Give the backbone structure.
Amino acid sequence: MENYWNETVETMGREQIREAQLKKLRAAVENVYSNVEYYRKKMQEKGILPGDIKSLDNLKDLPVTTKQDLRDTYPFGLFAVPMEDIVRIHASSGTTGKQTVVGYTRRDIDVWAECMARCLVMAGADRNSRVQVGYGYGLFTGGLGAHYGAEKLGAVTIPASSGNTQRQITMLKDFGVTHLCCTPSYSLYIAETMLEMGITKKDLKLKGGIFGAEPWSEAMRSEIESRLGLTAHDIYGLSEIMGPAVSQDCREQNGLHIWEDCFIAEVTDPDTNMPLEKEGEQGDLVITTINKEGFPLIRYKTKDICSLNYEKCGCGRTHVRMSKPAGRSDDMLIIRGVNVFPSQIESVLLKMGEVAPHYQIIVDRINNLDRMIVEIEISESMFSDNVKGIENTEKKISREVESVLGISAKIKLVEPKSIARSEGKAKRIIDNRNLK
Ligand code: DLL
Protein backbone atom coordinates (compact mmCIF):
# COMPACT_ATOMS: atom_id res chain seq x y z
CA MET A 1 0.00 0.00 0.00
CA GLU A 2 1.44 3.32 -1.07
CA ASN A 3 1.73 6.02 1.53
CA TYR A 4 0.92 9.62 0.80
CA TRP A 5 1.42 12.75 2.82
CA ASN A 6 -1.69 14.34 1.35
CA GLU A 7 -3.63 11.61 -0.45
CA THR A 8 -6.54 13.83 -1.54
CA VAL A 9 -4.27 16.25 -3.34
CA GLU A 10 -1.69 13.77 -4.60
CA THR A 11 -4.26 11.49 -6.26
CA MET A 12 -6.75 14.14 -7.46
CA GLY A 13 -8.34 13.48 -10.88
CA ARG A 14 -6.76 15.24 -13.89
CA GLU A 15 -9.90 17.24 -14.60
CA GLN A 16 -10.02 18.46 -11.02
CA ILE A 17 -6.35 19.42 -11.18
CA ARG A 18 -6.95 21.48 -14.31
CA GLU A 19 -10.00 23.21 -12.87
CA ALA A 20 -8.11 24.14 -9.72
CA GLN A 21 -5.13 25.31 -11.78
CA LEU A 22 -7.24 27.64 -13.89
CA LYS A 23 -8.81 29.21 -10.83
CA LYS A 24 -5.43 29.69 -9.15
CA LEU A 25 -3.78 30.91 -12.35
CA ARG A 26 -6.39 33.64 -12.76
CA ALA A 27 -5.84 34.74 -9.19
CA ALA A 28 -2.04 34.67 -9.62
CA VAL A 29 -2.16 36.79 -12.79
CA GLU A 30 -4.57 39.25 -11.18
CA ASN A 31 -2.21 39.43 -8.20
CA VAL A 32 0.98 40.19 -10.15
CA TYR A 33 -0.88 42.66 -12.36
CA SER A 34 -2.10 44.58 -9.32
CA ASN A 35 0.97 44.27 -7.11
CA VAL A 36 4.09 44.02 -9.28
CA GLU A 37 4.71 47.00 -11.51
CA TYR A 38 7.22 45.10 -13.64
CA TYR A 39 4.62 42.45 -14.55
CA ARG A 40 1.92 45.06 -15.14
CA LYS A 41 4.16 46.80 -17.68
CA LYS A 42 5.18 43.54 -19.39
CA MET A 43 1.55 42.49 -19.73
CA GLN A 44 0.53 45.89 -21.02
CA GLU A 45 3.32 45.73 -23.62
CA LYS A 46 1.96 42.35 -24.76
CA GLY A 47 -1.59 43.68 -24.76
CA ILE A 48 -2.91 41.14 -22.29
CA LEU A 49 -5.06 41.78 -19.23
CA PRO A 50 -5.85 39.44 -16.31
CA GLY A 51 -9.42 39.09 -17.60
CA ASP A 52 -8.07 37.55 -20.83
CA ILE A 53 -7.12 34.36 -18.99
CA LYS A 54 -10.20 32.28 -19.76
CA SER A 55 -8.61 28.84 -20.02
CA LEU A 56 -5.29 27.17 -19.32
CA ASP A 57 -4.52 27.53 -23.03
CA ASN A 58 -4.24 31.28 -22.47
CA LEU A 59 -1.14 30.66 -20.37
CA LYS A 60 0.97 30.76 -23.52
CA ASP A 61 -0.25 34.31 -24.23
CA LEU A 62 1.45 35.60 -21.09
CA PRO A 63 5.00 36.94 -21.25
CA VAL A 64 7.81 34.68 -20.02
CA THR A 65 10.03 35.63 -17.10
CA THR A 66 13.78 35.07 -17.34
CA LYS A 67 16.72 35.25 -14.96
CA GLN A 68 17.51 38.60 -16.57
CA ASP A 69 14.14 39.96 -15.36
CA LEU A 70 15.15 38.95 -11.84
CA ARG A 71 18.45 40.75 -12.23
CA ASP A 72 16.80 43.85 -13.67
CA THR A 73 14.53 44.09 -10.64
CA TYR A 74 17.26 43.27 -8.08
CA PRO A 75 16.81 42.96 -5.17
CA PHE A 76 13.08 43.16 -4.34
CA GLY A 77 11.38 44.46 -7.50
CA LEU A 78 9.34 41.31 -8.16
CA PHE A 79 8.07 40.89 -4.59
CA ALA A 80 4.27 40.98 -4.54
CA VAL A 81 3.77 41.75 -0.83
CA PRO A 82 5.08 44.50 1.45
CA MET A 83 8.43 43.68 3.06
CA GLU A 84 6.75 43.40 6.47
CA ASP A 85 5.07 40.19 5.25
CA ILE A 86 8.34 38.61 4.10
CA VAL A 87 9.85 36.25 6.69
CA ARG A 88 12.76 34.71 4.74
CA ILE A 89 15.09 35.48 1.88
CA HIS A 90 17.15 33.07 -0.20
CA ALA A 91 19.51 33.92 -3.03
CA SER A 92 21.30 32.10 -5.80
CA SER A 93 25.06 31.95 -5.68
CA GLY A 94 25.33 34.29 -8.64
CA THR A 95 28.27 32.57 -10.31
CA THR A 96 26.96 33.64 -13.72
CA GLY A 97 26.10 37.25 -12.90
CA LYS A 98 24.35 39.27 -10.24
CA GLN A 99 22.75 37.06 -7.59
CA THR A 100 19.01 36.58 -7.71
CA VAL A 101 16.97 37.13 -4.58
CA VAL A 102 13.68 35.48 -3.63
CA GLY A 103 11.37 36.21 -0.69
CA TYR A 104 8.91 34.02 1.19
CA THR A 105 5.95 34.84 3.40
CA ARG A 106 5.11 32.63 6.37
CA ARG A 107 2.47 30.89 4.24
CA ASP A 108 5.03 30.32 1.44
CA ILE A 109 7.34 28.59 3.91
CA ASP A 110 4.42 26.36 5.00
CA VAL A 111 3.54 25.44 1.42
CA TRP A 112 7.20 24.66 0.72
CA ALA A 113 7.40 22.43 3.82
CA GLU A 114 4.21 20.67 2.67
CA CYS A 115 5.73 19.95 -0.77
CA MET A 116 8.92 18.69 0.86
CA ALA A 117 6.99 16.49 3.30
CA ARG A 118 5.18 14.92 0.31
CA CYS A 119 8.58 14.21 -1.28
CA LEU A 120 9.95 12.63 1.89
CA VAL A 121 6.92 10.34 2.19
CA MET A 122 7.31 9.50 -1.49
CA ALA A 123 10.84 8.33 -0.58
CA GLY A 124 9.44 6.07 2.13
CA ALA A 125 9.96 8.35 5.14
CA ASP A 126 7.49 8.82 8.00
CA ARG A 127 7.51 10.25 11.51
CA ASN A 128 9.65 7.34 12.70
CA SER A 129 12.38 8.20 10.21
CA ARG A 130 15.65 9.97 10.88
CA VAL A 131 16.51 12.41 8.17
CA GLN A 132 20.03 13.77 7.79
CA VAL A 133 20.11 16.96 5.77
CA GLY A 134 23.49 17.17 4.05
CA TYR A 135 22.57 20.04 1.74
CA GLY A 136 24.19 23.34 2.60
CA TYR A 137 22.25 25.61 4.99
CA GLY A 138 22.23 29.29 4.19
CA LEU A 139 21.19 31.31 1.20
CA PHE A 140 21.14 28.08 -0.84
CA THR A 141 17.64 26.61 -0.53
CA GLY A 142 18.70 22.95 -0.16
CA GLY A 143 19.38 22.81 3.58
CA LEU A 144 16.50 24.80 5.04
CA GLY A 145 14.09 23.52 2.36
CA ALA A 146 14.67 19.87 3.23
CA HIS A 147 14.83 20.71 6.94
CA TYR A 148 11.39 22.29 7.22
CA GLY A 149 9.83 19.40 5.28
CA ALA A 150 11.42 16.79 7.54
CA GLU A 151 10.24 18.63 10.66
CA LYS A 152 6.73 19.01 9.25
CA LEU A 153 6.70 15.26 8.66
CA GLY A 154 7.63 14.79 12.31
CA ALA A 155 10.82 12.87 11.52
CA VAL A 156 13.96 13.31 13.59
CA THR A 157 15.73 16.01 11.62
CA ILE A 158 19.52 16.21 11.67
CA PRO A 159 20.75 19.54 10.29
CA ALA A 160 24.22 18.30 9.28
CA SER A 161 24.63 20.81 6.44
CA SER A 162 27.30 19.97 3.87
CA GLY A 163 30.92 19.14 4.52
CA ASN A 164 32.78 17.54 7.40
CA THR A 165 32.32 14.21 5.71
CA GLN A 166 33.74 11.92 8.40
CA ARG A 167 31.41 13.47 10.94
CA GLN A 168 28.48 13.02 8.53
CA ILE A 169 29.29 9.32 8.38
CA THR A 170 29.64 9.00 12.15
CA MET A 171 26.20 10.57 12.50
CA LEU A 172 24.69 8.33 9.82
CA LYS A 173 25.94 5.35 11.80
CA ASP A 174 25.48 6.43 15.42
CA PHE A 175 22.09 8.10 14.95
CA GLY A 176 20.67 5.28 12.81
CA VAL A 177 19.82 7.66 9.99
CA THR A 178 17.23 6.22 7.57
CA HIS A 179 17.11 9.01 4.96
CA LEU A 180 19.93 11.11 3.57
CA CYS A 181 19.39 14.36 1.66
CA CYS A 182 22.37 15.78 -0.29
CA THR A 183 23.66 16.22 -3.82
CA PRO A 184 24.19 12.94 -5.71
CA SER A 185 27.88 13.72 -6.19
CA TYR A 186 28.29 14.31 -2.46
CA SER A 187 26.58 10.99 -1.69
CA LEU A 188 29.30 9.25 -3.70
CA TYR A 189 31.94 11.21 -1.84
CA ILE A 190 30.37 9.97 1.39
CA ALA A 191 30.47 6.38 0.05
CA GLU A 192 34.13 6.79 -0.83
CA THR A 193 35.01 8.19 2.60
CA MET A 194 33.08 5.36 4.28
CA LEU A 195 35.39 2.91 2.57
CA GLU A 196 38.43 4.71 3.96
CA MET A 197 36.90 4.69 7.44
CA GLY A 198 36.19 0.97 7.22
CA ILE A 199 32.44 1.52 7.47
CA THR A 200 30.19 -0.48 5.17
CA LYS A 201 26.57 0.02 4.16
CA LYS A 202 25.69 -2.85 6.53
CA ASP A 203 26.77 -0.66 9.44
CA LEU A 204 24.13 1.90 8.43
CA LYS A 205 20.32 1.86 8.45
CA LEU A 206 19.85 3.94 5.32
CA LYS A 207 16.68 3.22 3.34
CA GLY A 208 16.19 6.23 1.12
CA GLY A 209 18.22 9.02 -0.41
CA ILE A 210 16.81 12.33 -1.65
CA PHE A 211 19.36 13.58 -4.09
CA GLY A 212 19.19 16.58 -6.37
CA ALA A 213 20.36 20.13 -7.15
CA GLU A 214 22.43 18.89 -10.10
CA PRO A 215 21.90 16.59 -13.08
CA TRP A 216 22.79 12.93 -12.59
CA SER A 217 22.29 9.90 -14.77
CA GLU A 218 20.43 6.63 -14.22
CA ALA A 219 23.82 4.91 -14.19
CA MET A 220 24.89 7.12 -11.31
CA ARG A 221 21.66 6.26 -9.51
CA SER A 222 22.49 2.52 -9.68
CA GLU A 223 26.02 3.21 -8.47
CA ILE A 224 24.80 5.22 -5.45
CA GLU A 225 22.09 2.66 -4.61
CA SER A 226 24.53 -0.22 -4.57
CA ARG A 227 27.22 1.63 -2.64
CA LEU A 228 24.95 3.06 0.05
CA GLY A 229 22.30 0.33 0.14
CA LEU A 230 19.32 2.62 -0.31
CA THR A 231 16.70 3.66 -2.87
CA ALA A 232 17.85 6.87 -4.50
CA HIS A 233 15.20 9.44 -5.38
CA ASP A 234 15.72 12.39 -7.67
CA ILE A 235 14.47 15.71 -6.28
CA TYR A 236 14.28 18.81 -8.44
CA GLY A 237 13.80 22.47 -7.71
CA LEU A 238 15.26 25.90 -8.14
CA SER A 239 15.50 28.85 -5.81
CA GLU A 240 13.56 31.17 -8.13
CA ILE A 241 10.51 28.90 -7.96
CA MET A 242 10.82 27.66 -4.37
CA GLY A 243 13.88 25.47 -3.76
CA PRO A 244 13.88 21.68 -3.50
CA ALA A 245 10.51 19.84 -3.79
CA VAL A 246 9.14 21.34 -6.98
CA SER A 247 9.17 17.70 -8.10
CA GLN A 248 10.55 14.30 -7.15
CA ASP A 249 10.37 10.74 -8.37
CA CYS A 250 8.41 8.03 -6.56
CA ARG A 251 9.23 4.34 -6.09
CA GLU A 252 8.60 3.78 -9.82
CA GLN A 253 11.69 5.93 -10.54
CA ASN A 254 10.11 6.86 -13.82
CA GLY A 255 9.77 10.62 -13.87
CA LEU A 256 9.46 13.32 -11.21
CA HIS A 257 5.95 14.30 -10.04
CA ILE A 258 5.55 18.07 -10.21
CA TRP A 259 3.19 19.33 -7.49
CA GLU A 260 0.53 20.72 -9.78
CA ASP A 261 -1.54 22.33 -7.06
CA CYS A 262 1.38 24.75 -6.71
CA PHE A 263 2.96 24.88 -10.17
CA ILE A 264 1.90 24.76 -13.79
CA ALA A 265 4.53 23.21 -16.03
CA GLU A 266 4.98 23.71 -19.76
CA VAL A 267 7.63 22.28 -22.04
CA THR A 268 8.44 24.90 -24.62
CA ASP A 269 10.46 25.70 -27.68
CA PRO A 270 13.43 27.68 -26.31
CA ASP A 271 13.29 30.20 -29.15
CA THR A 272 9.56 30.92 -29.43
CA ASN A 273 8.56 30.10 -25.81
CA MET A 274 5.53 28.31 -27.22
CA PRO A 275 4.47 25.01 -25.64
CA LEU A 276 5.51 22.00 -27.72
CA GLU A 277 2.56 20.32 -29.38
CA LYS A 278 3.38 16.69 -28.84
CA GLU A 279 3.24 15.27 -25.34
CA GLY A 280 6.55 13.64 -24.46
CA GLU A 281 8.65 15.96 -26.63
CA GLN A 282 11.77 17.34 -24.99
CA GLY A 283 12.13 21.08 -24.51
CA ASP A 284 12.70 23.89 -22.02
CA LEU A 285 10.74 23.64 -18.81
CA VAL A 286 8.70 26.75 -18.02
CA ILE A 287 7.01 27.01 -14.61
CA THR A 288 4.25 29.27 -13.30
CA THR A 289 3.74 29.44 -9.54
CA ILE A 290 0.06 29.42 -8.53
CA ASN A 291 0.33 29.09 -4.79
CA LYS A 292 2.90 31.68 -3.77
CA GLU A 293 2.49 35.04 -2.09
CA GLY A 294 5.91 36.64 -1.69
CA PHE A 295 7.55 35.97 -5.02
CA PRO A 296 5.08 34.69 -7.59
CA LEU A 297 6.53 34.00 -11.03
CA ILE A 298 4.65 33.77 -14.29
CA ARG A 299 6.08 31.47 -16.98
CA TYR A 300 9.60 31.31 -15.59
CA LYS A 301 12.10 29.92 -18.09
CA THR A 302 14.08 27.43 -16.00
CA LYS A 303 16.36 26.48 -18.93
CA ASP A 304 16.19 22.90 -17.67
CA ILE A 305 15.54 20.36 -20.38
CA CYS A 306 12.91 17.67 -19.93
CA SER A 307 9.66 16.23 -21.26
CA LEU A 308 6.26 15.80 -19.55
CA ASN A 309 4.19 12.65 -19.05
CA TYR A 310 0.54 13.02 -17.96
CA GLU A 311 -0.26 9.30 -17.70
CA LYS A 312 -1.34 8.02 -14.33
CA CYS A 313 1.64 6.64 -12.47
CA GLY A 314 1.95 3.15 -10.97
CA CYS A 315 2.30 4.78 -7.55
CA GLY A 316 -1.24 6.19 -7.79
CA ARG A 317 -0.23 9.84 -7.99
CA THR A 318 -1.85 11.84 -10.74
CA HIS A 319 0.47 14.85 -10.86
CA VAL A 320 2.38 15.18 -14.11
CA ARG A 321 5.86 13.64 -14.31
CA MET A 322 8.84 15.44 -15.80
CA SER A 323 11.65 13.30 -17.16
CA LYS A 324 14.93 13.36 -15.24
CA PRO A 325 16.38 16.75 -16.21
CA ALA A 326 18.89 16.10 -18.96
CA GLY A 327 20.80 19.26 -18.07
CA ARG A 328 20.41 22.96 -18.62
CA SER A 329 20.15 24.44 -22.05
CA ASP A 330 22.87 26.88 -20.97
CA ASP A 331 25.07 24.04 -19.66
CA MET A 332 24.85 22.27 -22.93
CA LEU A 333 28.22 22.31 -24.59
CA ILE A 334 28.30 22.85 -28.29
CA ILE A 335 31.45 21.17 -29.45
CA ARG A 336 32.27 21.34 -33.12
CA GLY A 337 28.59 22.05 -33.70
CA VAL A 338 27.37 19.00 -31.77
CA ASN A 339 25.26 19.35 -28.63
CA VAL A 340 26.85 17.58 -25.70
CA PHE A 341 25.48 17.16 -22.19
CA PRO A 342 27.76 16.07 -19.35
CA SER A 343 25.12 13.47 -18.41
CA GLN A 344 25.67 11.65 -21.73
CA ILE A 345 29.34 11.29 -20.96
CA GLU A 346 28.57 10.24 -17.40
CA SER A 347 26.35 7.36 -18.57
CA VAL A 348 29.10 6.04 -20.81
CA LEU A 349 31.66 6.16 -18.03
CA LEU A 350 29.48 4.46 -15.48
CA LYS A 351 28.53 1.71 -17.92
CA MET A 352 32.19 0.86 -18.46
CA GLY A 353 32.61 -0.10 -14.82
CA GLU A 354 36.41 0.14 -14.87
CA VAL A 355 36.63 3.75 -13.79
CA ALA A 356 35.43 5.73 -10.79
CA PRO A 357 32.41 8.04 -11.27
CA HIS A 358 34.51 11.17 -10.85
CA TYR A 359 35.17 13.08 -14.01
CA GLN A 360 35.63 16.51 -15.47
CA ILE A 361 35.18 17.78 -19.00
CA ILE A 362 37.71 20.32 -20.21
CA VAL A 363 37.06 22.16 -23.45
CA ASP A 364 39.61 24.30 -25.26
CA ARG A 365 39.72 25.97 -28.63
CA ILE A 366 43.00 25.43 -30.40
CA ASN A 367 43.52 26.91 -33.87
CA ASN A 368 39.79 27.54 -34.08
CA LEU A 369 39.02 23.93 -33.39
CA ASP A 370 37.25 22.72 -30.26
CA ARG A 371 39.01 20.06 -28.29
CA MET A 372 37.35 18.09 -25.52
CA ILE A 373 39.30 16.22 -22.90
CA VAL A 374 37.51 14.03 -20.41
CA GLU A 375 39.57 13.41 -17.30
CA ILE A 376 38.38 10.38 -15.43
CA GLU A 377 39.66 8.95 -12.21
CA ILE A 378 40.63 5.33 -12.23
CA SER A 379 39.90 3.02 -9.36
CA GLU A 380 42.62 2.13 -6.83
CA SER A 381 42.91 -1.38 -8.26
CA MET A 382 43.43 -0.09 -11.79
CA PHE A 383 45.99 2.40 -10.60
CA SER A 384 48.42 -0.42 -9.95
CA ASP A 385 47.77 -1.76 -13.47
CA ASN A 386 50.42 -1.44 -16.17
CA VAL A 387 50.62 1.49 -18.60
CA LYS A 388 49.41 -0.67 -21.48
CA GLY A 389 46.27 -1.60 -19.57
CA ILE A 390 45.50 2.05 -18.90
CA GLU A 391 46.05 2.99 -22.53
CA ASN A 392 43.72 0.26 -23.68
CA THR A 393 41.01 1.45 -21.32
CA GLU A 394 41.43 5.01 -22.57
CA LYS A 395 40.97 3.83 -26.14
CA LYS A 396 37.94 1.75 -25.25
CA ILE A 397 36.21 4.66 -23.47
CA SER A 398 37.13 7.00 -26.29
CA ARG A 399 35.45 4.69 -28.86
CA GLU A 400 32.35 4.40 -26.70
CA VAL A 401 32.09 8.19 -26.13
CA GLU A 402 32.45 8.79 -29.85
CA SER A 403 29.72 6.29 -30.69
CA VAL A 404 27.31 7.98 -28.24
CA LEU A 405 28.14 11.62 -29.00
CA GLY A 406 29.15 11.38 -32.62
CA ILE A 407 32.32 13.37 -31.96
CA SER A 408 35.70 12.40 -30.63
CA ALA A 409 37.05 13.22 -27.19
CA LYS A 410 40.46 12.64 -25.70
CA ILE A 411 40.15 10.43 -22.66
CA LYS A 412 42.72 10.86 -19.92
CA LEU A 413 42.70 8.53 -16.95
CA VAL A 414 43.98 10.22 -13.84
CA GLU A 415 45.03 9.07 -10.37
CA PRO A 416 42.45 8.25 -7.73
CA LYS A 417 41.33 11.37 -5.78
CA SER A 418 42.94 13.83 -8.17
CA ILE A 419 39.65 15.46 -9.25
CA ALA A 420 38.35 17.91 -6.67
CA ARG A 421 35.37 16.61 -4.67
CA SER A 422 32.41 18.82 -4.01
CA GLU A 423 30.28 18.99 -0.91
CA GLY A 424 27.54 20.69 -2.92
CA LYS A 425 27.06 20.80 -6.66
CA ALA A 426 29.82 19.10 -8.64
CA LYS A 427 31.75 21.17 -11.17
CA ARG A 428 31.80 18.96 -14.25
CA ILE A 429 32.76 21.40 -16.99
CA ILE A 430 35.75 23.63 -17.48
CA ASP A 431 35.18 25.57 -20.66
CA ASN A 432 38.26 27.57 -21.58
CA ARG A 433 36.88 28.77 -24.91
CA ASN A 434 35.73 32.16 -23.72
CA LEU A 435 32.54 32.01 -25.75
CA LYS A 436 30.55 34.48 -23.67
O1 DLL B 1 19.47 23.46 -6.57
C1 DLL B 1 17.43 23.68 -5.32
C2 DLL B 1 17.56 22.27 -4.87
C3 DLL B 1 18.18 22.00 -3.69
C4 DLL B 1 17.02 21.24 -5.63
C5 DLL B 1 18.28 20.69 -3.25
C6 DLL B 1 17.11 19.94 -5.21
C7 DLL B 1 17.74 19.67 -4.02
P1 DLL B 1 19.43 26.36 -7.36
O2 DLL B 1 20.71 26.42 -6.64
O3 DLL B 1 18.68 27.61 -7.63
O4 DLL B 1 18.40 25.48 -6.56
O5 DLL B 1 19.69 25.58 -8.71
C8 DLL B 1 18.64 25.25 -9.56
O6 DLL B 1 19.81 23.26 -10.34
O7 DLL B 1 17.55 24.98 -12.50
C9 DLL B 1 18.67 22.82 -12.34
O8 DLL B 1 19.48 23.26 -13.41
C10 DLL B 1 19.55 22.21 -11.26
N1 DLL B 1 18.85 21.13 -10.59
C11 DLL B 1 18.19 21.16 -9.42
N2 DLL B 1 17.71 19.92 -9.13
C12 DLL B 1 18.07 19.11 -10.17
C13 DLL B 1 17.89 17.73 -10.48
C14 DLL B 1 18.55 24.16 -6.21
N3 DLL B 1 17.25 16.90 -9.66
C15 DLL B 1 19.14 24.47 -10.75
N4 DLL B 1 18.39 17.27 -11.64
C16 DLL B 1 18.02 23.98 -11.63
C17 DLL B 1 19.04 18.09 -12.49
C18 DLL B 1 18.79 19.88 -11.10
N5 DLL B 1 19.27 19.38 -12.25
In short: DSSP finds twelve helices and 20 strands in the chain. The radius of gyration is 22 Å. The mean pLDDT is 93.
